[in-house]
Amino acid sequence: MRETPPPTADAVVIGGGIVGACCADALSAAGLRVAIVERHGLAGGTTAAGEGNILVSDKELGPELELALLSNRLWTELGEELQAAAVAPTAGPADAAAADIELEAKGGLMVAMTDAGHDAITTLAVQQRAAGVVAEPIDAAAAAELEPHLTPGLVGAMHYPQDQQVQPVKASAAVLRRARGRGASLHPHTPVTGITRGRDGRVTGVVTRRGAISTGVVVNAAGVWSRQLAAMAGADLPIAPRRGQILVTEPLPLLVHRKVYDADYVGTVGAADPTAAAISSVIEGTRAGTILIGSSRELVGLDRRSNLPLLARMAARAMELFPVLADVHLLRTYLGFRPYSPDHLPIIGEDGEVAGLFHATGHEGAGIGLAPATGALLASLVTATTPPLDPARFAADRASLHRAAADAEPVDA
Amino acid sequence: MRESAADGPRRPPPDGLRVPPPAGPSRGAAFTFRFDGRQITAYPGETIGAALLAAGIRRLRTTRFAGTPRGLLCGIGSCFDCLVTVDGRGSQRACLTPAIPDAEVEVQDVPRAT
Ligand SMILES: Cc1cc2nc3c(=O)[nH]c(=O)nc-3n(C[C@H](O)[C@H](O)[C@H](O)COP(=O)(O)OP(=O)(O)OC[C@H]3O[C@@H](n4cnc5c(N)ncnc54)[C@H](O)[C@@H]3O)c2cc1C
Ligand code: FES
């Protein structure tokens, strides 16, 4: 797969994570000759640390939710297409492997242990329903039927049947494979060291350790590193790493059937003080039998040392929700860095100052879920075709982004 | 520590695969526990994994999906390959769990929540 980068391309996508994969796929589908350049191995950045939640239940009402609803549909379509390809008469073992992305429409359960939490999710659900989200209120008894191991001390819950789950690395591989089938070339272990611009300021190409590629379209999908990539073209992007830790249990029989979230999960994502360390419980089983207990949020740069007190808080909260976990071993913990944007919306579109430089980044803790819609939107902006939704709120030069950035003084990536 | 030629002809090991103790304190009094119905000899301070290994048993379980054998891998509690059920308690690491007299150790081919 380590092909020498081509001398020219219609578009160069920087970053082989889920966002870069989906952008390359959508651009290739639109007929462009795309080269994907990735500094390390494919899907080894933040994408490899993601839990794989594809949620509509936790999205802020408005543009983020619209993007999430579109993305949710696109994930379902991708899953169906992969399944169909796997059983087609011409299918081979590679098709079967590609279909195994562990996509499951298992639904989510937002559980409230306090009256205040219950009131909050009840109010939120009214607005969510108006925006097209299926949100079914259920009482403690019904919740116990859906999740027999949940604590009996619940006030109530909200069921979100549209919430899905996927294995992010397998999904990236499947999307990259599709992009490749559509003519894209993949270049892992090819770090970008520069972005060149012409006299008129337009992007003219990228310089990599393995050769230069001339192109008029550069897509910056470098996640937490997208700020550095933007800087190579003389642009500024206020992206900072927001660290997240996850606990992984030993393989277990099926104890947790859906995704289970604490009612205060929604609150933490857009917490008033983003610099304060926070946890929000998301508990889910995986096909391997392990249970993932997430997650924490901290703005501490790219520090890879784990924060044990935060991990202990996550474990304690998980045991409150699922008392059965008290006797379960933890296999390991891991951490990753979410590409945090100061106004909590991804950046999708052309740079405000550098023509030909497009960004697809800043998805924070939702980049897996939002990737397919991001690719679709980005491709429509590059090819100047009708966008699937209003791109204005995701624009790189939106005022809220730079104002919030000035206030928050983001940690340097 | 292999027996050297100077120790004379190879004898069947009197004490399973255990390394002969150096001169000094003895291993203490042997006791037994059961693994998969078999009587296994152990000495005070040994883990279940150590005693099973000394008895020549390397296969502790098989994997759920592919049915391939698993036993001691890291030996220090990190890999969770050596899981067994001990006195009804599931998913115990054989390499860390001390052997105790009359324990009932079972093969665990399906994960259990304790
Ligand atoms: C603990 C945790 C849990 C999460 N859970 C979820 C979840 O459940 N659902 C969800 O939707 N999201 C989740 N996320 C967020 C999600 O993982 C990210 O939003 C998403 O992976 C971002 O994808 P990306 O492609 O933008 O970034 P990345 O996957 O980081 O890809 C960027 C790539 O750019 C490459 N790169 C950097 N510099 C260069 C260069 N100079 N040249 C070439 N390549 C370069 C990097 O090597 C990297 O591979 C979670 C994140 C964390 C940390
Ligand atoms: S052998 Fe690795 S945990 Fe026991």
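qc> The first strand of chain A starts at residue 11 and ends at 14.
qc> done
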